[in-house]
Amino acid sequence: MTSCIPQGSILGLALFNIVCDMDSGIECTLGKFANDTKLCGVVNTLEGRDAIQRDLDRAERWACVNIMKFSKAKCKVLHLGRGNPKHKYSLGGEWIESSPEKKDLGVRVEENLNVSRQCALTAQKASYILGCIKSSMASRLREVILPLCSALVRPHLESCVQLWSPQHRKDTELLEWVQRRATKMIRGLEHLSCEDKMRELGLFSLEKRRLQGDLIAAFQYMMGPTRKLGRDFLQRHAVIGQGVMALN
After folding, report:
1. What is the 3-state secondary structure (H, E, C) of 44-62?
2. How many Å from the N-terminal Cα to the C-terminal Cα in the chain?
3. How crowded is residue 186: how many other Cβ atoms within 10 Å of its Cβ?
4. Which of 34, 100, 191, 213 has the fewest CB neighbours in a 10 Å radius?
5. Higher pLDDT, 236 or 32
6. Is the pLDDT of residue 208 over 90?
7. pLDDT (tens digit, 9 = 90+) per residue, 171-203?
8. What are the tens digits of pLDDT across the range 133-161?
9. How far apart are CA 73 and CA 89, in angstroms?
10. Can you give the residue ranges of every domain in the chain?
11. In sequence order, which residues have a C-beta less than 8 Å from that of residue 35 and are 6 or more positions away?
């Protein structure tokens, strides 16, 4: 290469994914997003552990051949599942440190797959932005507050929510509280209950919007580019579900 492009540009992401052949010969699952690479595998036997280690060795050799290097200080191992033996892995002769959680594209994944902390941080960020809107806008008309909340607050409450959708009622209520707080800012609705305010403004609860998003995602799996994989997955689970109902 005789020239380079600025870091952070859209062109850089496209070029990296085009020229990066790191996944050649990889046994486990490799995920690439720009310069963030994730290696995933099921480790319920020693062979599973050895497969991940072999892939790590391949990745290190690939980096040496392409005159690149991994930032080993930023590489972490996240062990998932109960009774995980938590094997140790090395990259380039150095042990990779284990971590109880990992932040991936704004989503915090914990080793016990608990999303309560992710919900709390999401509600905190959305609430902070809502406070900025309240302190900076003199008008309390619905024509002003509602578009601002839809554009600046709700995206934080719904970003990648299909991955970290809350399972506990306390987490669901925490997210709903942010939206209810937004409706209280609108002038002229003080005499209405929270449910009536939502109905008057034409808003659905975040829980219903998540259900809508799940249905849209399922439709895309069935009809989109990955429809063959999606149909096999959904049909298989539908048969299992029918079997459970018959047994009951």
Report:
1. CCHHHHHHHHHHHHHHHHH
2. 64
3. 20
4. 191
5. 32
6. yes
7. 999 999 999 999 999 988 888 888 898 889 998
8. 999 999 999 999 999 999 999 999 998 89
9. 14
10. 10-99, 116-203, 213-239
11. 16
Measured CA to CA, the distance from residue 52 to residue 40 in angstroms comes to 8
Structure tokens at 57: 């060795």
Amino acid at 178: V
Q: Are 243 and 188 in contact (CB under 8 A)?
A: no
Question: Dihedrals φ, ψ of 31, to 5°?
Answer: -110, 130
List beta partners, residue 244: none
Which CA distances in Å does 82 have to 62, 106, 113? 33, 25, 10
224 bridge partner residues = none
- Amino acid identity of residue 100, one-letter, is P
161: tokens are 């929510």
In whole angstroms, give the CA distance from residue 140 to residue 186: 5
CA distance linking residue 173 with residue 162, whole number of Å: 17
165 three-state secondary structure:
coil
Q: How far is CA 179 from CA 55, 146, 149, in A?
A: 45, 11, 9
Q: Which two tokens stand for residue 155?
A: 């995206």
Mean pLDDT of 54-75: 87
